[in-house]
């Protein structure tokens, strides 16, 4: 066909790139609703970037004015309450979509595309760091003591822990210097996240998207538009309804009430706990009496995701063909939610013992689904 007869989007040098990467992108015909959560994560990044930049225009990263500047945003800035609730609620929605996205990748074997998976797990770590930095900025009681507790975990590093803490804090303890450093990191890190997100998409489009069956679908593809733009728009509408509930109806649902009190270094809260999306790791940390053991468990709970491409032993990618692995996967999901519940309970029995049990189950069910795929293959194909 003559180039002049092609649509403009296929002739213009820039639109041609966007067209091949999105509009006419070949996609497997059998993608289900769980694939829409990847698009929702892109929407989350946009929401957090825009609302964060607007909030930074009014926020003052100073230990004596940060808390009051947040109240100023909520009470005096035009639609400031909406912006802050959008930023806070958007963070919770970000992690909901992120956990579903990772769960989908585990269940359907998307981790076999190693470059996509490794960049994705690295993005997960960056987003967790970004959320922790943002949680410290209001400089309320839970923000201050959360920074104190988590940053002190660096003391398990031999020889360099004190120098590392001093560099992180900017002082001999958590102070206004720490707040300024965290604000700068919180402002800059999203741009690094965007770069890695672009790299994530590049590797995804280079190898092609996985599908629920985990089989080669080159001969069964449809254009992204209109087949999947419609699904993504429907997903955005559902996403918007939940987000607006968190913003306009019940913003307190995802906020720790103790953080409405200004930071007081002389008064420790009865229970220092992170936001709900970190509670699973916090439950592991406090369930192990030894500090170093708790930190190692904390790191292994996330870094263990890097091992998935190496421990998958089955002939098929998707767990849809492996009933035993499916059972352990759903045990992992239930156990993950149980850890979140235990993490918000007081540090006393029976919650300490329950946390230790759930921690053991977490690591067992984390590695068993991909490892058991090869065992199932041997049972099925045994001659």
Automatic annotation (TrEMBL):
Record CDD domains: cytochrome_b_C, Cytochrome_b_N
Main location group: mitochondrion
GO BP: mitochondrial electron transport, ubiquinol to cytochrome c
InterPro entries tied to this protein: Cyt_b/b6_C, Cyt_b/b6_C_sf, Cyt_b/b6_N, Cytb/b6-like_sf, Cytochrome_b, Cytochrome_b_C_euk/bac, Cytochrome_b_N_euk/bac, Di-haem_cyt_TM
Residue numbers binding heme b b562: 87, 186
Organism from which the protein derives: Perna canaliculus (Green-lipped mussel)
Annotated TM spans: 40-61, 81-103, 115-137, 143-161, 182-203, 233-255, 292-311, 323-343, 355-376
Function: Component of the ubiquinol-cytochrome c reductase complex (complex III or cytochrome b-c1 complex) that is part of the mitochondrial respiratory chain. The b-c1 complex mediates electron transfer from ubiquinol to cytochrome c. Contributes to the generation of a proton gradient across the mitochondrial membrane that is then used for ATP synthesis.
MF term (GO), any: oxidoreductase activity
Cofactor: heme b; heme
One GO CC term on file: respiratory chain complex III
Protein name: Cytochrome b
Domain Cytochrome b/b6 N-terminal region profile: residue ranges: 5-213
Residues reported in the UniProt entry to bind a ubiquinone: 205
Record bears the keyword Cell inner membrane: no
Free-text remark on how the cofactor is bound: Binds 2 heme groups non-covalently.
Annotated localization: Mitochondrion inner membrane
């Amino acid at each position: 066909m003559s180039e002049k007869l092609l649509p403009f989007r296929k002739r213009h040098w820039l639109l041609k790139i966007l067209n091949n990467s999105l509009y006419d992108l070949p996609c497997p015909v059998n993608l289900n609703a769980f694939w829409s959560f990847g698009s929702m994560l892109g929407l989350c990044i946009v929401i957090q970037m825009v609302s964060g930049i607007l909030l930074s225009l009014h926020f003052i990263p100073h230990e004596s004015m940060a808390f009051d500047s947040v109240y100023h945003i909520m009470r005096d800035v035009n639609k400031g309450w909406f912006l802050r609730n959008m930023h806070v609620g958007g963070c919770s929605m970000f992690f909901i979509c992120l956990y579903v996205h990772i769960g989908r990748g585990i269940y359907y074997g998307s981790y076999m595309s190693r470059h996509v998976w490794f960049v994705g797990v690295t993005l997960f770590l960056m987003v967790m760091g970004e959320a922790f930095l943002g949680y410290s900025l209001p400089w309320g009681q839970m923000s201050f003591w959360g920074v104190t507790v988590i940053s002190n975990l660096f003391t398990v590093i031999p020889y360099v822990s004190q120098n590392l803490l001093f560099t992180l804090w900017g002082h001999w303890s958590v102070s206004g210097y720490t707040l300024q450093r965290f604000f700068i990191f919180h402002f800059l890190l999203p741009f690094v996240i965007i770069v890695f997100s672009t790299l994530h998409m590049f590797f995804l489009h280079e190898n092609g998207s996985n599908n629920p069956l985990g089989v080669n679908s080159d001969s069964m593809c449809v254009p992204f538009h209109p087949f999947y733009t419609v699904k993504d728009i429907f997903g955005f509408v559902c996403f918007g309804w939940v987000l607006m509930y968190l913003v306009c109806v019940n913003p307190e649902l995802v906020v720790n009430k103790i953080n409405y009190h200004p930071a007081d270094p002389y008064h420790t809260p009865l229970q220092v706990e992170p936001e709900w999306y970190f509670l699973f790791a916090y439950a592991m940390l406090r369930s192990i009496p030894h500090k170093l053991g708790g930190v190692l468990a904390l790191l292994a709970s996330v870094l263990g995701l890097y091992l998935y491409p190496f421990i998958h032993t089955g002939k098929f990618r998707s767990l849809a063909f492996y009933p035993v692995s499916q059972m352990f996967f759903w045990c992992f999901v239930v156990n993950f939610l149980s850890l979140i519940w235990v993490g918000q309970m007081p540090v006393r029995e029976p919650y300490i013992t329950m946390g230790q049990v759930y921690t053991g189950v977490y690591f067992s069910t984390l590695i068993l689904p991909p490892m058991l795929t090869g065992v199932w293959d041997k049972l099925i194909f045994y001659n």
